[in-house]
Amino acid sequence: MTPLEVALFVFILITAVLTALFRDVLAAIVIFAAYSLGLAVVYTFYRAPDVGLTEAAIGAGVTTVFLLLTIAKTTRPPTDELFEPINWPAVAVCGLFALVVGSTLTAFPAVGDPNSPILTNPEVTGYYLENAYDETGAKNAVTSVLAAYRGFDTFGEAVVVFAAGIASLLVLGREVFTA
Protein backbone atom coordinates (compact mmCIF):
# COMPACT_ATOMS: atom_id res chain seq x y z
CA MET A 1 0.00 0.00 0.00
CA THR A 2 1.18 3.47 -0.80
CA PRO A 3 1.19 6.27 1.80
CA LEU A 4 -1.72 7.89 -0.05
CA GLU A 5 -3.79 4.71 0.24
CA VAL A 6 -3.00 4.43 3.95
CA ALA A 7 -3.94 8.09 4.50
CA LEU A 8 -7.23 7.63 2.64
CA PHE A 9 -8.15 4.51 4.61
CA VAL A 10 -7.25 6.17 7.92
CA PHE A 11 -9.37 9.20 6.95
CA ILE A 12 -12.32 6.96 6.08
CA LEU A 13 -11.96 4.98 9.30
CA ILE A 14 -11.76 8.12 11.46
CA THR A 15 -14.77 9.77 9.78
CA ALA A 16 -16.81 6.55 10.08
CA VAL A 17 -16.07 6.26 13.80
CA LEU A 18 -16.75 9.96 14.42
CA THR A 19 -20.04 9.74 12.53
CA ALA A 20 -21.14 7.00 14.90
CA LEU A 21 -19.88 8.69 18.07
CA PHE A 22 -21.01 12.31 17.69
CA ARG A 23 -24.14 13.11 19.67
CA ASP A 24 -24.85 16.30 17.70
CA VAL A 25 -26.79 15.26 14.61
CA LEU A 26 -25.61 18.18 12.48
CA ALA A 27 -21.96 17.39 13.21
CA ALA A 28 -22.55 13.72 12.42
CA ILE A 29 -24.14 14.63 9.07
CA VAL A 30 -21.23 16.86 8.10
CA ILE A 31 -18.70 14.20 9.05
CA PHE A 32 -20.73 11.59 7.15
CA ALA A 33 -20.52 13.80 4.06
CA ALA A 34 -16.73 13.91 4.47
CA TYR A 35 -16.75 10.10 4.82
CA SER A 36 -18.67 9.78 1.53
CA LEU A 37 -16.27 12.13 -0.23
CA GLY A 38 -13.36 10.08 1.11
CA LEU A 39 -14.95 6.94 -0.34
CA ALA A 40 -15.44 8.73 -3.66
CA VAL A 41 -11.73 9.58 -3.74
CA VAL A 42 -10.81 5.96 -2.96
CA TYR A 43 -13.05 4.66 -5.75
CA THR A 44 -11.54 7.14 -8.17
CA PHE A 45 -8.02 6.23 -7.02
CA TYR A 46 -8.77 2.57 -7.73
CA ARG A 47 -9.84 3.42 -11.27
CA ALA A 48 -13.59 3.28 -10.78
CA PRO A 49 -14.56 6.88 -11.53
CA ASP A 50 -18.18 5.95 -12.28
CA VAL A 51 -18.59 4.50 -8.79
CA GLY A 52 -16.69 7.47 -7.34
CA LEU A 53 -18.99 9.96 -9.04
CA THR A 54 -22.04 8.03 -7.87
CA GLU A 55 -20.74 7.98 -4.30
CA ALA A 56 -20.00 11.70 -4.42
CA ALA A 57 -23.41 12.54 -5.89
CA ILE A 58 -25.57 10.18 -3.85
CA GLY A 59 -23.55 9.68 -0.67
CA ALA A 60 -22.12 13.15 -0.12
CA GLY A 61 -24.66 15.15 -2.10
CA VAL A 62 -28.21 13.85 -2.05
CA THR A 63 -28.01 11.94 1.24
CA THR A 64 -26.50 14.94 3.01
CA VAL A 65 -29.22 17.24 1.66
CA PHE A 66 -31.98 14.81 2.72
CA LEU A 67 -30.49 14.44 6.19
CA LEU A 68 -30.13 18.20 6.60
CA LEU A 69 -33.72 18.72 5.43
CA THR A 70 -34.87 16.06 7.87
CA ILE A 71 -33.25 17.72 10.87
CA ALA A 72 -34.56 21.10 9.69
CA LYS A 73 -38.11 19.69 9.81
CA THR A 74 -37.71 18.08 13.23
CA THR A 75 -36.71 19.36 16.64
CA ARG A 76 -33.23 18.77 17.99
CA PRO A 77 -33.01 17.78 21.65
CA PRO A 78 -30.55 19.90 23.61
CA THR A 79 -27.53 18.05 24.89
CA ASP A 80 -24.40 18.92 26.78
CA GLU A 81 -22.54 15.76 25.84
CA LEU A 82 -20.41 15.82 22.72
CA PHE A 83 -20.11 12.06 22.12
CA GLU A 84 -22.40 9.09 22.53
CA PRO A 85 -21.34 6.49 25.08
CA ILE A 86 -19.57 3.59 23.42
CA ASN A 87 -21.53 0.34 23.10
CA TRP A 88 -18.71 -2.17 23.60
CA PRO A 89 -20.60 -5.29 22.43
CA ALA A 90 -21.40 -3.49 19.17
CA VAL A 91 -17.74 -2.49 18.83
CA ALA A 92 -16.75 -6.14 19.33
CA VAL A 93 -19.18 -7.34 16.65
CA CYS A 94 -18.02 -4.64 14.21
CA GLY A 95 -14.38 -5.44 14.96
CA LEU A 96 -14.95 -9.13 14.35
CA PHE A 97 -16.71 -8.34 11.09
CA ALA A 98 -13.84 -6.04 10.05
CA LEU A 99 -11.32 -8.80 10.79
CA VAL A 100 -13.26 -11.31 8.69
CA VAL A 101 -13.58 -8.88 5.78
CA GLY A 102 -9.97 -7.75 6.19
CA SER A 103 -8.75 -11.34 5.99
CA THR A 104 -10.12 -11.54 2.43
CA LEU A 105 -8.21 -8.50 1.18
CA THR A 106 -5.16 -10.55 0.27
CA ALA A 107 -7.27 -12.49 -2.24
CA PHE A 108 -7.79 -9.38 -4.38
CA PRO A 109 -5.28 -8.71 -7.16
CA ALA A 110 -3.31 -5.49 -7.05
CA VAL A 111 -4.46 -2.62 -9.24
CA GLY A 112 -3.02 -3.19 -12.73
CA ASP A 113 -1.90 -6.75 -11.95
CA PRO A 114 -1.51 -8.60 -15.28
CA ASN A 115 -2.71 -11.80 -13.57
CA SER A 116 -6.05 -10.30 -12.48
CA PRO A 117 -9.11 -12.30 -13.56
CA ILE A 118 -10.31 -9.66 -16.01
CA LEU A 119 -7.02 -9.81 -17.89
CA THR A 120 -6.64 -13.59 -17.72
CA ASN A 121 -10.12 -14.10 -19.20
CA PRO A 122 -9.86 -12.12 -22.44
CA GLU A 123 -12.81 -13.89 -24.06
CA VAL A 124 -15.41 -12.01 -22.02
CA THR A 125 -13.65 -8.66 -22.08
CA GLY A 126 -12.82 -9.05 -25.75
CA TYR A 127 -16.41 -9.96 -26.60
CA TYR A 128 -17.75 -6.81 -24.95
CA LEU A 129 -15.15 -4.58 -26.56
CA GLU A 130 -15.63 -6.09 -30.03
CA ASN A 131 -19.42 -6.34 -30.06
CA ALA A 132 -20.69 -3.63 -27.72
CA TYR A 133 -20.91 -0.90 -30.33
CA ASP A 134 -22.59 -3.01 -33.02
CA GLU A 135 -25.02 -4.90 -30.78
CA THR A 136 -26.17 -1.97 -28.64
CA GLY A 137 -25.63 1.12 -30.75
CA ALA A 138 -24.06 2.88 -27.77
CA LYS A 139 -21.05 5.12 -28.28
CA ASN A 140 -19.37 3.98 -25.07
CA ALA A 141 -18.53 0.38 -24.11
CA VAL A 142 -19.24 0.98 -20.41
CA THR A 143 -22.63 2.45 -21.23
CA SER A 144 -23.47 -0.51 -23.42
CA VAL A 145 -22.56 -2.96 -20.65
CA LEU A 146 -24.59 -1.09 -18.04
CA ALA A 147 -27.59 -0.26 -20.21
CA ALA A 148 -27.84 -3.28 -22.50
CA TYR A 149 -25.98 -6.33 -21.22
CA ARG A 150 -26.83 -5.59 -17.58
CA GLY A 151 -30.09 -3.82 -18.42
CA PHE A 152 -32.31 -5.69 -16.00
CA ASP A 153 -29.86 -5.18 -13.15
CA THR A 154 -29.47 -1.49 -13.96
CA PHE A 155 -33.25 -1.14 -14.29
CA GLY A 156 -33.66 -2.74 -10.86
CA GLU A 157 -31.17 -0.26 -9.39
CA ALA A 158 -33.03 2.61 -11.04
CA VAL A 159 -36.33 1.38 -9.57
CA VAL A 160 -34.78 1.26 -6.09
CA VAL A 161 -33.38 4.79 -6.44
CA PHE A 162 -36.73 6.05 -7.77
CA ALA A 163 -38.63 4.40 -4.89
CA ALA A 164 -36.19 5.91 -2.37
CA GLY A 165 -36.67 9.33 -3.95
CA ILE A 166 -40.46 9.07 -3.79
CA ALA A 167 -40.30 7.88 -0.18
CA SER A 168 -38.00 10.79 0.70
CA LEU A 169 -40.37 13.27 -0.92
CA LEU A 170 -43.28 11.79 1.03
CA VAL A 171 -41.36 11.98 4.30
CA LEU A 172 -40.11 15.51 3.70
CA GLY A 173 -43.61 16.69 2.72
CA ARG A 174 -44.99 15.92 6.18
CA GLU A 175 -45.61 18.48 8.88
CA VAL A 176 -42.92 19.46 11.38
CA PHE A 177 -43.00 17.23 14.43
CA THR A 178 -42.73 18.86 17.84
CA ALA A 179 -41.81 17.25 21.10
Automatic annotation (TrEMBL):
Listed transmembrane segments: 6-22, 29-46, 52-69, 90-111, 154-173
Cellular component, GO, one term: plasma membrane
Subcellular localization, as worded in the UniProt entry: Cell membrane
Superkingdom as given in the UniProt entry: Archaea
A Pfam family recorded for this sequence: MbhE
Coiled-coil positions: none
Main location: membrane
InterPro entries per UniProt: CPA3_Na-H_Antiporter_A, MrpA_C/MbhD, MrpA_C/MbhE, Nuo/plastoQ_OxRdtase_6_NuoJ
Keywords: Cell membrane, Membrane, Transmembrane, Transmembrane helix, Transport
Domain MrpA C-terminal/MbhD positions: 10-75
Membrane-protein topology: Multi-pass membrane protein
Domain MrpA C-terminal/MbhE intervals: 121-169
PANTHER family listed in its UniProt record: NA(+)/H(+) ANTIPORTER SUBUNIT, NA(+)_H(+) ANTIPORTER SUBUNIT A
NCBIfam families: PRK12504.1
Protein name, UniProt field: DUF4040 domain-containing protein
Species this chain originates from: Halohasta litorea
